[in-house]
Design brief:
By secondary structure, this protein is an alpha+beta fold. The chain is built from 10 helices and 16 strands. Residues 133-178 are annotated as: Disordered.
Length: 472
């Protein structure tokens, strides 16, 4: 989850006699006990992000927040968006990407990366295979008009979408299954640029670019957080209106994907986990299609289910008043989907309830089990600028990895104090800080724009050029 601790004075560990000496690494139980002790001071505070406090280095993941917080855990799901010819299938491609964007939380445990400093930036590439199976549901819609109750039940097994398998629950349309091509495809390059554009409130802007596929995504990241005593509720901030994905080759078709609220739970049990119990929306005004995803975090006797149910339906962009699945007229529903979002999600074409279809008629849109977070291609160290995330935090990271926690905390405090001093100098001179790569620090539309410098950085990244001479 995005960083919601601040660059305020740290709660430091007692300094060791030798700051360069390796210290005992605290156990997970010890780290959690310290973590809870700090959080208890903030019970009832409306927004932890506005309070902004700092954790001791031994509780941190040695990763900058801007590096950690991205949506390309499975970039091959992203580059497949816009491949299908039918609007409904393209919405399914967007949904497939949606269920992979936070793979790190489905497959791993939550962690706390470093806070971002104002003006800090991060850039990287992904080299991904164009191997996500093609989505084509036309065979399921041939026997009757889209949205009719018989469109799915009358389809034969032969009408299962090409590229999605045999139609059994085991035949998955997952981003991990490669296409059976005679010749291996050239990897597709996706470039990423993000910058901390505001400190109060903490906001970062991001831009994802894939010119080869005529595809880009952008948005602002900002959260609010509240500690209830048993869990931390994390919600989108006022400037975070979601991810905006544009498909250039489909007449600039744009999808807005809004974030649901999430909970960091398991604090009292000593096993942190992320659960979602809210609603998310994906809208495309050009195709007049909308998806509603309803998440359920608890089931019978309070057991965590991590289930999601959803629909794709026709909507009126000029009168977008359907916020719950039950509000949508049955005749407008084109697709139903559901399942445990940390494991496997399936869908059926038509408006009949998902559970009314036998397993062999339920198509797997994503199977999380075989997936892993994709590695990034990073700029060489000698090409990184001082305010680039990996360079800015390098000394802290090296100290944490060496278990020199007192040294890490000292260096971290020095970085934080340097940021405060820069802010004091700007204030005394009456200067207003402006981002380098994005036109505005925040925007009520939730859609950032790149500066000429930002465009040049991405242009160079697309050809594998990490040199920023002449850019800044």
């Amino acid at each position: 989850m995005s960083s919601w601790f601040s660059s305020a004075p740290a709660t430091a560990a007692a300094p060791a006699a030798d700051p360069n000496a390796a210290e005992d690494h605290p156990s997970d139980g010890s780290k959690l006990k310290t973590f809870i002790g700090i959080l208890r001071k903030f019970i009832g505070v409306a927004d932890l992000a506005s309070v902004r406090f700092s954790l001791p280095s031994q509780l941190l993941e040695p990763t900058p927040n801007l590096e950690y917080w991205n949506y390309l855990d499975s970039p091959n799901a992203f580059v497949a968006i816009g491949t299908a010819d039918e609007p409904v299938d393209r919405m399914l491609e967007v949904l497939r990407f949606w269920f992979t964007k936070d793979l790190k939380y489905a497959k791993g445990k939550p962690c706390k990366p470093y806070n971002s400093c104002l003006g800090e930036f991060f850039r990287c590439n992904w080299e991904t295979d164009d191997d996500a199976p093609r989505i084509d549901t036309s065979g399921l819609r041939k026997s009757s008009p889209p949205g009719s109750s018989s469109s799915s039940t009358k389809s034969s097994k032969a009408a299962i979408p090409a590229g999605l398998g045999s139609g059994t629950s085991q035949a998955a349309s997952t981003v991990s299954v490669p296409q059976l091509a005679a010749n291996p495809t050239k990897p597709v390059r996706v470039s990423y640029l993000t910058e901390q554009t505001s400190h109060h409130p903490p906001v970062s802007a991001f831009y994802i670019d894939c010119p080869e596929k005529g595809l880009h995504a952008k948005g602002f990241d900002q959260i609010t957080a509240k500690f209830t005593g048993t869990s931390i509720k994390v919600s989108p901030g006022e400037h975070n209106l979601g991810i905006f994905i544009t498909v250039d080759r489909r007449d600039n078709e744009t999808y807005q994907l809004t974030h649901p609220a999430a909970h960091l739970g398991g604090i009292l049990r000593g096993a942190l986990s992320v659960s979602v119990g809210d609603t998310a929306y994906i809208t495309c005004p050009k195709t007049k299609l909308k998806a509603i995803l309803r998440y359920y975090d608890e089931g019978w006797l309070g057991r965590t289910t991590n289930k999601v149910e959803g629909i794709i339906f026709r909507y009126d962009p000029e009168n977008d008043n359907k916020t719950q699945i039950k509000d949508v007229p049955v005749e407008d529903i084109l697709v139903r989907l559901g399942g445990p979002w940390k494991e496997k999600v399936v869908f059926t074409v038509g408006n009949e309830p998902l559970e009314s279809h036998p397993p062999e008629k339920q198509i797997t849109i994503i199977d999380i089990a075989p997936l892993n977070v994709a590695p990034k291609v990073l700029p060489p160290q000698e090409k990184q600028l001082p305010n680039e995330s990996l360079q800015l935090w390098r000394e802290v990271t090296n100290a944490i990895l060496a278990k020199q926690f007192s040294k890490a905390t000292t260096v971290k405090q020095e970085l934080e104090e340097a940021q405060r001093e820069k802010a004091r100098q700007r204030e005394s001179k009456g200067e207003t800080w402006a981002p380098a790569f994005f036109v505005q620090a925040t925007d009520k539309t939730g859609i950032p724009s790149l500066t000429e410098k930002g465009r040049e950085v991405l242009k160079r990244a697309q050809v594998g050029n990490w040199d920023l001479d002449g850019v800044l």
